[in-house]
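TASK: fixed-backbone design
INPUT:
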């Protein structure tokens, strides 16, 4: 499997758990495993499966798949991100003339360059950013790019970022 090749070199990989609100396997997230209990020279970072939680941070999003191998839940509902400045011209769904011309928002109008999204694919980069921050803040020598050093750092960063996650 291609993920084994990444892991052998110490590359962390995250995969969104899926947005169907079900328990069916969603590949590649369904291939995730827990990180090793101990970090050794042979430890390889496992694929991390990421589910989405609601903005309150305490409840899982209704759409987030309930995979038994979900490694982490991160914010994945109403995530605001940049988007090309386009107007899909679907138009407003309601137009009224009370007190001047009023309209509902056009769901395809991104002319301000931002959009709000939901999904495990938006939760996954949140974990990736936390992993990157953990690697930077670890104090490790990041110039050592040997496979052994990369694997050790990756597994330690993943374990640190997953502290407190439900098993």
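OUTPUT:
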């Amino acid at each position: 499997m291609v993920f084994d090749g990444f892991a052998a070199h110490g590359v962390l990989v995250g995969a969104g758990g899926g947005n169907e609100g079900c328990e069916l396997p969603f590949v590649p997230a369904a291939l995730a495993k827990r990180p090793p209990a101990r970090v050794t020279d042979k430890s390889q970072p496992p694929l991390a499966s990421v589910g989405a939680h609601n903005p309150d941070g305490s409840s899982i999003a209704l759409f987030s798949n309930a995979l038994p191998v979900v490694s982490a839940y991160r914010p994945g509902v109403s995530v605001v991100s940049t988007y090309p400045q386009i107007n899909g011209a679907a138009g407003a769904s309601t137009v009224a003339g009370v007190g001047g011309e009023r309209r509902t928002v056009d769901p395809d109008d991104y002319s301000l360059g931002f959009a709000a999204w939901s999904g495990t694919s938006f939760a996954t980069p949140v974990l990736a950013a936390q992993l990157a921050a953990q690697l930077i803040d670890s104090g490790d020598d990041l110039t050592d790019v040997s496979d052994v050093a990369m694997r050790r750092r990756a597994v330690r960063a993943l374990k640190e970022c997953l502290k407190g996650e439900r098993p």
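COMMENT: The mean pLDDT is 89.
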